[in-house]
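Troubleshooting: if your tokenizer reports a length mismatch, compare your output against this known-good record of 117 residues.
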Amino acid sequence: MNKKASRLRRALKLRSNIKKLGNNRLSVHRTAKHIYAQVISENGTVTVASASTNLAEIKSAVKSTGNVESAVIVGKMIADKAIAAGITEVTFDRSGFKYHGRVKALADAAREAGLKF
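Known-good structure output:
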């Protein structure tokens, strides 16, 4: 089993547990160059809010889009958008990635901005 298959297996296990809870989820995906976050509704069909390092205002604010600094900005932005949409409590879906580095920085920034996990 390679790295990607292992990550996807972990993600499937996490998502099945989140689905049982029936909460909105904050889903995170990271690549070498970017990090993406979206808040998905309880039924999993509607994306309520999204943010990523592909957005022009984030690209212009940071030197590199693949670092912890940019993940913190994405975390604050996704929290602000979710709160504006009326969502204050979410379940964190790390998509099988380790809770470390950019994923952890995004989660901590979202918590500080007012989201509750």
